Amino acid sequence: MNFLLGVLLTLVFEGAVFLPVKHKDRDFWIIFALANTVSNLFINLTVSLCYGMILHGWLVVILYTLEVSAVLFEYCIYSKKEGRSMKLFIYTFLANLFSYVLGLLLFGHV
What we know:
Elements: H1 3-22, H2 26-50, H3 56-82, H4 86-107
Helix pairs in contact: 1-2, 1-4, 2-3, 3-4
């Protein structure tokens, strides 16, 4: 998959989850775009580099570990601006889950 397409789709899919609650907060959207670009590129580059080098089962474990790490990374970044809250964590989790599921539907699994 094209890395740029992956980043753009992630921004659109995850942005759709945050749009109802953060639609006017320009600073949040800048942080959102940067955090998601970094986490998406890191995940996709890591999976691409590992693909074919390790057993498929381990690749899936690595992918899920990276996805959980992305939720935690993005939440930590967002909470620097927004403050820690369960609501922010839930939105971050749901945004990542939504993006991951739509990615599966569009591109399939690793």
